[in-house]
């Protein structure tokens, strides 16, 4: 698989963020979070604590009810090409081949054709799909489709990569492969990543810091950040005692009841 060169990267500043949905559901209140350029941050927490809401606000799909959200020093006012989003369902265009799916973004930038082809080939190679470039999504496994989704987003050279449970639908082996691949791609590109997951192990394996959220409408309190746990492990051997100690610390924080208001 091909190495990638460093791409764009941006810092993130979230301050006093609150979200009340139409109908009065208070999804989150008073969230502060600063992320450095190039950092990989995972977000974990019980169902309904506002993880996806946070991601959707960063993506610009939802507007905050209060607070400041800036990416690369620019306030987020809607979706933009500086932010790439990968969801659990791959969201590929079924009528386009792998190559056409990945080329879609670059070809809309009015780049010379040769440059579009070079970018497309590079990202298809980076996710190990060169031999499958002419195939259509329906001809690929779930893991391969998610690889295409990642290549397609990266080909747009985002400065912030937003991922919501991207590997949630994959079997354990494929999931482990994609985790290792994403880690390698992140080392190469240094794109800032915010990664929502239900898997604490996945969070500890991938992230520089793990944001643990708590609360949520089902607890009668808005979602908020309980703690941010830095992952200071030299290697990410999931079987090591040090790795498991961090996992346990985060699991305890996730499962503890939210603080009363
Ligand atoms: N569009 C919406 N309209 C109204 N309420 C919503 C909307 N989207 C989310 N909510 C509510 O906001 C709260 C937070 O939802 P969110 O999806 O952000 O949580 P989550 O932590 O990502 O949950 P999960 O882990 O189950 O995906 C939940 O109570 C949810 O029901």
TrEMBL record:
Molecular function GO labels: ATP binding; ATP hydrolysis activity
Keyword presence, Transferase: no
InterPro entries assigned to the protein according to its UniProt record, in alphabetical order: AAA+_ATPase, ABC_transporter-like_ATP-bd, ABC_transporter-like_CS, ABC_transporter_ATP-bind, P-loop_NTPase
Domain ABC transporter: 12-238
UniProt KW Cell wall biogenesis/degradation keyword: no
Keywords: ATP-binding, Nucleotide-binding, Transport
PANTHER family with a match to the protein in the record: ALIPHATIC SULFONATES IMPORT ATP-BINDING PROTEIN SSUB, TAURINE IMPORT ATP-BINDING PROTEIN-RELATED
Name the UniProt record assigns to this protein: ABC transporter ATP-binding protein
Organism encoding this protein: Modestobacter marinus
